[in-house]
Amino acid sequence: MGKLQNIIYFLSEKIIVLQKNIYFCGLFHNRLIKNKNKMKKVFIMICAVSVIAASLSCYGQQEQITMIFEGHGEVKFSIGGSEMVTINWGDGSKIETYKQANVINEYGEPLPYQYKHEYSTASATTVTITGKNIMYLNCEGTRLTGLDVSKSIALTTLECNLNQLTSLDVSNNPALEVLHCSGNKLTNLDVSKNTALTELCCVKNQLSGLDVNKNTALKELKCGMNQFSSAALKTLFETLHSNDINRDKHVSVSTNPGMSEDYLSYEEDKKIAKGKGWLVF
């Protein structure tokens, strides 16, 4: 289903391109309409080829992930998918190409493979991963100061805990189901485009609020040790969905200042989440 969803997304993103192609085909048709019937067949063939070509160019196009590391020493990360990937380590060393193992684990995720590289200098280095159908990325604890996944729209799992990220843009990752970004320096996190998200863990950042109104598949949310005020916690509880997803739904907000600044209000506001079937911790 994940691959089908990606194909649908690719096609929908390019619908404007298809409309333009059909429009120009229409202009061409108007000029040919007075000619013989065989010219109409030419028109139909041109339109058909245009639509097919545009569709094929959308699906399977190259994706890219960019990571910026600080400091020398070993860097390692794991990626998973089903196609070839190329890794440019950014230090002048040989560009490496690998075939991802097209194996799905018991959780329905692609089996990841870990890649390692040793850096001798302490300067910032940009690593670029290029490939197709990159569905899984784990770059936890790798001294990351920058991460760009906007060109990796097939991504379903992103784990970037314990880094030094001050921003994270996942607005172009509609297939994302699992996002772990705890232990960073994030002050804002927009997950409004991640409607497939089932698990979100953003503990120990500098977030002052979170809106999960669009995340109607969410099962587990951990956002403790941030800067949520009492009002922000209430807003969070109000945006939680009330869907029945055939399992317990958990939300953890522990060690946020809003819990202690107005404890009675917090206890009352928790009822909002509990009334929607959420267990609050």
List the helices and strands and how they pair.
Elements: H1 2-13, H2 15-32, H3 37-58, E1 63-69, E2 73-81, E3 84-88, E4 96-99, E5 113-119, E6 125-131, E7 134-138, E8 144-151, E9 157-159, E10 178-180, E11 199-201, E12 220-222, H4 230-239, E13 249-252, H5 257-261, H6 263-274, E14 278-280
Parallel strand pairs: 7-9, 9-10, 10-11, 11-12, 12-13, 13-14
Antiparallel strand pairs: 1-6, 1-8, 2-5, 2-7, 3-4, 3-6
Helix pairs in contact: 2-3, 4-6
What features would you describe in this structure?
With 281 residues, the chain is of the alpha/beta class. It has a domain at 2-58. The protein has helices spanning 2-13, 15-32, 37-58, 230-239, 257-261, 263-274; strands at 63-69, 73-81, 84-88, 96-99, 113-119, 125-131, 134-138, 144-151, 157-159, 178-180, 199-201, 220-222, 249-252, 278-280. The protein has a nine-stranded mixed beta sheet with strand order 5-2-7-9-10-11-12-13-14. Helix 2 (15-32) packs antiparallel against helix 3 (37-58) and helix 4 (230-239) packs parallel to helix 6 (263-274). It starts with a helix and ends with a strand.
Keywords:
alpha/beta, 28% helix, five-stranded antiparallel β-sheet, 6 helices, nine-stranded mixed β-sheet, 281 residues, disordered N terminus, 14 strands
The sequence of SSEs as H and E is HHHEEEEEEEEEEEEHEHHE
Strand order of the largest sheet: 5-2-7-9-10-11-12-13-14
Number of strands: 14
**Morphology call:** globular
